[in-house]
Amino acid sequence: MTAETPITTLIFDVDDTLYDVSTGFTDHRNGEAAQRFMMEYLNFPDLESAKKIRDQYFEKYHATAKALTIAEQDGAFPPPDPTKPTKVPRFDPKDLADYWTSNLDFRLLGGKKIKLLQDLESCGLKLVAFSNGPRRYVKRVLVELGLFNVFGDERLYAVDDVLPFCKPEKEAFEKIFADVGVRADECVMIEDSMKNINAPTN
User: Fold this and answer.
1) Helix 34-42 vs helix 64-73: crossing angle, to nearest 10
2) Are the CB atoms for 193 and 167 separated by under 8 Å?
3) What is the pLDDT of residues 49-93, one digit of tens each?
4) Which PANTHER family match (predicted)?
5) What is the pLDDT of residue 5?
């Protein structure tokens, strides 16, 4: 970006960016809630074994949906329950989105962000939300924060929209830039991760 390049677009991460990390909501989501999903849907026998696989793959892939997708490809899941119907692939990001949307305690987010909403609505720039979370879940978070209408469905991007890539992979950002119709040098990223901020320009 040069001094002459006009900024046209703000791209916001959602989790731990549009709400404060100190709420504990992310630990709630990525901790026991993710592990219980893995027990219920993927036949992990206990929280400990689910946590081990989720954390191992999340450290490398930075998104629970992509982490579990790759873990299944690597054969890291326990065998399916023979008493239940089994689909292929066993992990579907939509199942995770539905589970989180239905089971998380969204009260931890702390309610509507009225001042932030007013600031965003008055900034005069294109506003984009881009999260490594699954779409239905991310939409629920934005609704709970009172911010969904700032972005709308057309400017909300989730991991479902960019798989097999996700942040911080450059291909994920390139898809967003192409869809929105902007260049990287006219965007500002608002993020909690330096890996994600640096990725589009590397």
Assistant:
1) 40
2) yes
3) 999 999 999 999 999 999 999 999 999 999 999 999 989 999 999
4) PHOSPHOGLYCOLATE PHOSPHATASE
5) 79
pLDDT tens sequence across 10-46: 999 999 999 999 999 999 999 999 999 999 999 999 9
Chain centroid, CA 46 distance in Å? 25
Cα(86)–Cα(112) distance, rounded to whole angstroms? Answer: 40
Tokens 């969204």 belong to residue: 106
Mapping DSSP to helix (H, G, I), strand (E, B) and coil, where does residue 140 land? helix
Predicted model pTM: 0.89
Q: How would you classify residue 188: left for phi > 0, otherwise alpha for psi between -120 and 50, otherwise beta?
A: beta
Handedness of CA 98, 101, 146, 155 (dihedral sign): negative
For residues 124 and 146, give the distance between their C-alpha atoms in angstroms, rounded to a whole number.
19
> Measured in whole angstroms, how far is the alpha carbon of residue 30 from the centre of its chain?
11
For the segment(s) 9-21+109-201, the CATH number from 3.40.50.1000, 3.40.190.10, 3.40.50.720, 3.40.50.150 is 3.40.50.1000
Kindly state the tokens that stand for 77: 């899941």
Domain ranges (residues) in the chain:
9-21+109-201, 26-106
